[in-house]
Amino acid sequence: MAHKNTTTLFQTLSRLAPQLHPIRWPLFWGFLSALAASGVALAVPQIYRILVNTALVPGNGTGALWVGAGVVLLLGVLEAGLISLRRQFVIVPVTTVETRMRTSFYAHVQRLAVEFHDRWGSGQLLSRAMSDLNFMRRWMAFGAIMLVVTALTVVIGVGLMFSMSWELGLIFLAAAAPIAIFGFRFRRSYGRASRKSQDQAGDLATTVEESVHGIRVLKAFGRGREALDSFEEQAQELQATEIHKAKSLAVFSLVVTLLPELALGAGLVVGILLVSNGRLDVGALVAFFATAAVVAGPVEAMGPLLAMTFAAKTALDRHFEVIDSTNTITDPEHPVQLDTVRGELEFRDVHFRFPDSPEGTTDLLNGVDLTLQAGETMALVGITGSGKSALLNLVPRLYDVSSGTISLDGVDIRQLSLNDLRRHVSVAFEDTTLFSHSVRENVLLGAAEQGESSPELNEAALERALEVAQAGFAHTLADGVETLIGEEGLSLSGGQRQRIALARAIAARPALLVLDDPLSALDVNTEERVMDRLREELAGTTTLIVAHRPSTVSMADRVALLQDGRITAVGTHAELLAGNEHYRYVLASLTEEPRDLDSDAELSGEPSDELGATPLTHKDQGAGA
Ligand SMILES: Nc1ncnc2c1ncn2[C@@H]1O[C@H](COP(=O)(O)OP(=O)(O)OP(=O)(O)O)[C@@H](O)[C@H]1O
């Protein structure tokens, strides 16, 4: 995912200020320690100067020599202590900032609408949450401080060199001009390359994530070789970018190392001439070169430190691209509170198109009018691709209508807080995501929102939900409802997964249940039992269910037919069957065959064959499911 970012280095880095404000003092002390360490390093040559000028004078004893050597040793120990102190000061504060930024990044990503997640690869988000912030921490703890300290060391060091001999100082400074010009060009090319490599690393992470999720499909279709080839290609592109980065850094480092060395060579010749002319004392010459040796380290470090800073800018740009993404689905300013929800749901002139739909195409939902009475079970039927799932997604506001209104008990759902709305509406999708938790935790995921914290209430909610969803098989798993399922746990069959997801929706005790063909993997008998129990237990719950099988449709109180973006007929199954040709056509195209017959064995207490099966995991779309 390539983004064009036009902010300057300063603009981007200054956005860190609010994060750094609370840790400004530890950072300041860290900076001061590093600066003091550099100061100490620069002081050592001055001792040399005194030592040379006193110890070499005939007649002076060796006392001054020993004192000087002792002072140099002490300064060495002090410098090491100060360097370690810098780390002590900054490590905890910067890791705290990193954790805080990562947590707010995660929270923001959680809040962002499904529409955002449709556009962003998971690897891009993963790399921004992990490696970019990790890089930021290293830059804050080391790069930023050392860049300033290094620059100051160079300035002070060059000043000292000038104070010892302006002629030699000028020679050294002459080398700085090409470095500055080269540094400017390096900044631009390296900045571009580091952006490219960080984006490519994100894309690579997406590829790994997708192939791990889709490993069964890849294996089943024998596409492992192709997947590897395409991964290799992406990895090689990243490698090429990294090589380009390393090469441009190497050239820059060569220039910043070579030019000062050349200047030192020239300075040596001029310095000896100056000493022989009596315009410079030997001590000053020794001190000049010792200072130049101290300054050479920071000058050489400038390249990697600048590179680190540009890469940190890129990391921050990438971070803020996500943080700056606005949430299109938000709470109203003054939410309406529904104390008791009857569950009457009304769609009025609802239009909807996906945000990324091409211009000029007609709306997917093109004026939907539909009313569900409180407590009613309504089946939604239409040909494949007619927009049934899209319509369902509008109810918990996973997407917002493009125009028109959806109201719950007469209140526009956009007037309700998202929390309230999603508490009243539970969703179960055909493609179910179970989390790497126990059955209990997966089922009670929605119940937690209801504030059911007492263990007894939770236990009752769990048992009821499992029973209604005909998911009693959970008790026969190795550790019963404590068995770990989901991506890192036991793999369940498609039908088992669907029933756990349905139990999750039921446990939330919603006023409105939105089911997107969640029984497709069940055999007809189990489906009938689930529907019967749903009717009994959730008598007061309004249910909107997308059905792909005539058996499901026939169990609904009424059926709505979605055709060309509108509801063209509403009635009982029998009424529509008798009087609507399109309905008969749609029904004829629906399959009566269950896709996963795994329930009868469970009912007889036999372990299911599919228990060991390893179905694909799917990307869930959100609330409640
Ligand atoms: N995130 C999306 N962005 C853009 N278009 C989408 C998106 N999701 C679905 N679509 C398109 O919208 C149309 C309706 O999809 P939807 O899933 O609502 O149909 P459906 O009636 O539920 O189909 P099915 O019965 O096959 O499940 C399809 O053409 C689909 O390609």
From TrEMBL:
<feature type="transmembrane region" description="Helical">
    <location>
        <begin position="282"/>
        <end position="308"/>
    </location>
</feature>
<dbReference type="GO" id="GO:0016887">
    <property type="term" value="F:ATP hydrolysis activity"/>
</dbReference>
<feature type="transmembrane region" description="Helical">
    <location>
        <begin position="25"/>
        <end position="44"/>
    </location>
</feature>
<feature type="region of interest" description="Disordered">
    <location>
        <begin position="596"/>
        <end position="625"/>
    </location>
</feature>
<protein>
    <submittedName>
        <fullName>ABC transporter</fullName>
    </submittedName>
</protein>
<feature type="transmembrane region" description="Helical">
    <location>
        <begin position="249"/>
        <end position="276"/>
    </location>
</feature>
<dbReference type="InterPro" id="IPR027417">
    <property type="entry name" value="P-loop_NTPase"/>
</dbReference>
<dbReference type="InterPro" id="IPR003439">
    <property type="entry name" value="ABC_transporter-like_ATP-bd"/>
</dbReference>
<feature type="transmembrane region" description="Helical">
    <location>
        <begin position="139"/>
        <end position="162"/>
    </location>
</feature>
<keyword id="KW-0067">ATP-binding</keyword>
<dbReference type="GO" id="GO:0015421">
    <property type="term" value="F:ABC-type oligopeptide transporter activity"/>
</dbReference>
<keyword id="KW-0472">Membrane</keyword>
<feature type="domain" description="ABC transmembrane type-1">
    <location>
        <begin position="28"/>
        <end position="308"/>
    </location>
</feature>
<feature type="transmembrane region" description="Helical">
    <location>
        <begin position="64"/>
        <end position="85"/>
    </location>
</feature>
<dbReference type="Pfam" id="PF00664">
    <property type="entry name" value="ABC_membrane"/>
</dbReference>
<keyword id="KW-1133">Transmembrane helix</keyword>
<feature type="domain" description="ABC transporter">
    <location>
        <begin position="345"/>
        <end position="589"/>
    </location>
</feature>
<keyword id="KW-0812">Transmembrane</keyword>
<comment type="similarity">
    <text>Belongs to the ABC transporter superfamily. Siderophore-Fe(3+) uptake transporter (SIUT) (TC 3.A.1.21) family.</text>
</comment>
<dbReference type="InterPro" id="IPR036640">
    <property type="entry name" value="ABC1_TM_sf"/>
</dbReference>
<dbReference type="GO" id="GO:0005886">
    <property type="term" value="C:plasma membrane"/>
</dbReference>
<keyword id="KW-0813">Transport</keyword>
<feature type="compositionally biased region" description="Acidic residues">
    <location>
        <begin position="599"/>
        <end position="609"/>
    </location>
</feature>
<keyword id="KW-1003">Cell membrane</keyword>
<dbReference type="InterPro" id="IPR011527">
    <property type="entry name" value="ABC1_TM_dom"/>
</dbReference>
<feature type="transmembrane region" description="Helical">
    <location>
        <begin position="168"/>
        <end position="186"/>
    </location>
</feature>
<dbReference type="InterPro" id="IPR039421">
    <property type="entry name" value="Type_1_exporter"/>
</dbReference>
<keyword id="KW-0997">Cell inner membrane</keyword>
<dbReference type="InterPro" id="IPR003593">
    <property type="entry name" value="AAA+_ATPase"/>
</dbReference>
<keyword id="KW-0547">Nucleotide-binding</keyword>
<dbReference type="Pfam" id="PF00005">
    <property type="entry name" value="ABC_tran"/>
</dbReference>
<dbReference type="GO" id="GO:0005524">
    <property type="term" value="F:ATP binding"/>
</dbReference>
<dbReference type="InterPro" id="IPR017871">
    <property type="entry name" value="ABC_transporter-like_CS"/>
</dbReference>
